[in-house]
Design a protein that fits this description.
Layout: E1 2-6, H1 11-22, E2 26-31, H2 38-42, E3 47-50, H3 56-62, E4 68-71, H4 78-88, E5 92-96, H5 106-120, E6 125-131, E7 134-135, H6 143-152, E8 155-159, E9 165-166, E10 169-170, H7 171-183, E11 190-194, E12 200-201, H8 202-213, E13 218-222, H9 224-236, H10 245-250, H11 260-266, H12 273-286
Parallel strand pairs: 1-2, 1-4, 2-3, 4-5, 5-6, 6-11, 7-10, 8-13
Antiparallel strand pairs: 9-12
Helix pairs in contact: 1-7, 3-4, 6-8, 8-12
Bound molecules: NADP nicotinamide-adenine-dinucleotide phosphate.
C-alpha cells in the first residue's frame, strides 16, 4: 500500500512509520516545513513532502499516487484531511483519535467527538483508532517525566488516594494495532480503543515505574484541591514537576477501557505495563536520561 503519513515525527507516528516500512508499504511523510524534528525523519523516511495537515490545498498536493492516509497529526485536522482525500480520490483513511473522547469532562471530549463525527460522515473507507496515554522510548512525553522525577527524588507526592485507573499503551503495541486497523478490510467503518493490557491504579503505576528503576520512593499522600492550585502556580514559575495541574484534575477520572473488539478483529495484544516500562527505563538509561 502507498500511504501518506501525517504526524510522522511524533512517537506514535514514528513507530507506525517503522512498522509500515518493515511490512513492505511505501510511505510518504507529510511534515511541517518549520518542524524541529526533521533529522528524526530523515533517517527513516525516504520520501518527505513539506505541508500542513490543517491546509487542504497542501494535503491535495501531497496525495497524488497514494492509496491511503494514516493521519496521526491530530483529529483536529479531520475536516481538511477528509476534504483533501475526497478531492484527490484517495479513499482509505486511518484516523488517530484518543480515548479522551470517552471523558466525562466536556473540554477533553467535546471537540474529539465532533472530529470523529467528521470522519464517520466522510463517505471514505475510514477507521478510527483511539490510543490511551502512549509511552515508551526517549520520545515519550508522558511516563518519561514520571521516571525522571522518580529517578531524582526519594519522595513521591501522590495526589488524592491514587486509586483511579490508568491503562497506558506501549508505542510498539499501538503501532501494531494501528497497522492492523489500516490493513484489514473488515476494519473499515469501525472505531477501536487501543489501550495497554490491563488497567492499574495510579499508585500501582507509580510503584511499578519506580520498581523498574530499582527505586522505592516514600509515598506522600496529598489532597487534590490545594495541590492543583499549588501546581498551577509552580507551572507558571516553570518548576520541574512530575504531573501537570490539568492532569491532577483528571486524576479523579478512571481511564480504563476494554478492547475486546480490537483483540478479536485486529489481533490486538498489548503488553502489560511492567514490561513496557522496563523497556523504557532500559532505553532512557542507554541515552543517559536516567541514572544507571
Ligand atoms: N501522546 C499521547 O499520549 C496520546 C494519547 C492519545 C492519542 N494521541 C494521539 O496521537 C497523535 C500524536 O500525538 P502526540 O501526543 O504524540 O503529539 P505530538 O508529539 O504533538 O505530535 C504531533 C505530530 O503532528 C505533527 N503536526 C502537528 N501539527 C501539524 C500540522 N499542522 N501539519 C503537519 N503536521 C503537524 C507534528 O509535527 P512537528 O514535528 O512539526 O511538530 C507531530 O509529528 C495525535 O493524534 C494525538 O491525539 C496521543
Amino acid at each position: 500500500m502507498r500511504v501518506l503519513l501525517t504526524g510522522a515525527t511524533s512517537l506514535p507516528g514514528l513507530t507506525l512509520l517503522k512498522r509500515l516500512l518493515e511490512c513492505g508499504h511505501d510511505v510518504r511523510c507529510l511534515m511541517r516545513s518549520g518542524s524541529p524534528n526533521l533529522m528524526r525523519l530523515k533517517r527513516e523516511c525516504s520520501e518527505i513532502v513539506h505541508g500542513d495537515a490543517g491546509n487542504e490545498a497542501s494535503l491535495v498536493r501531497a496525495l497524488p499516487g497514494m492509496d491511503a492516509v494514516a493521519h496521526v497529526a491530530g483529529l483536529t485536522f479531520a475536516p481538511q484531511v477528509v476534504a483533501a482525500m475526497r478531492r484527490s480520490g484517495v479513499d482509505r483513511l486511518l484516523a488517530v483519535g484518543s480515548t479522551s473522547v470517552h471523558s466525562a469532562y466536556e473540554h477533553r471530549s467535546g471537540h474529539r467527538k465532533e472530529m470523529e463525527k467528521v470522519v464517520r460522515g466522510s463517505g471514505l473507507a475510514w477507521t478510527v483508532v483511539r490510543p490511551t496515554m502512549i509511552y515508551g522510548s526517549e520520545l515519550d512525553r508522558n511516563m518519561r517525566h514520571l521516571l525522571r522525577f522518580l529517578d531524582r527524588f526519594p519522595i513521591f507526592p501522590l495526589f488524592g488516594d491514587g486509586t483511579n485507573l490508568w491503562q497506558p499503551v506501549y508505542h510498539e503495541d499501538l503501532a501494531r494495532g494501528m497497522l492492523a486497523a489500516l490493513e484489514r478490510p473488515e476494519a473499515v467503518g469501525r472505531s477501536y480503543d487501543l489501550p495497554g493490557a490491563a488497567p492499574l491504579t495510579y499508585r500501582d503505576l507509580v510503584l511499578t515505574a519506580a520498581g523498574a528503576l530499582g527505586r522505592k520512593p516514600q509515598i506522600l499522600k496529598l489532597p487534590l484541591g490545594p495541590v492543583r492550585q499549588a501546581l498551577a502556580f509552580a507551572e507558571r514559575a516553570r518548576l520541574p514537576l512530575p504531573v501537570k495541574s490539568e492532569q491532577v484534575l483528571r486524576l479523579r477520572e478512571d481511564k480504563a477501557y476494554p478492547y475486546d473488539e480490537a483483540r478479536e478483529e485486529l489481533g490486538y495484544k498489548p503488553r502489560p505495563f511492567h514490561e513496557g516500562i522496563a523497556l523504557e527505563v532500559a532505553r532512557l538509561r542507554e541515552v543517559g536520561m536516567v541514572r544507571p
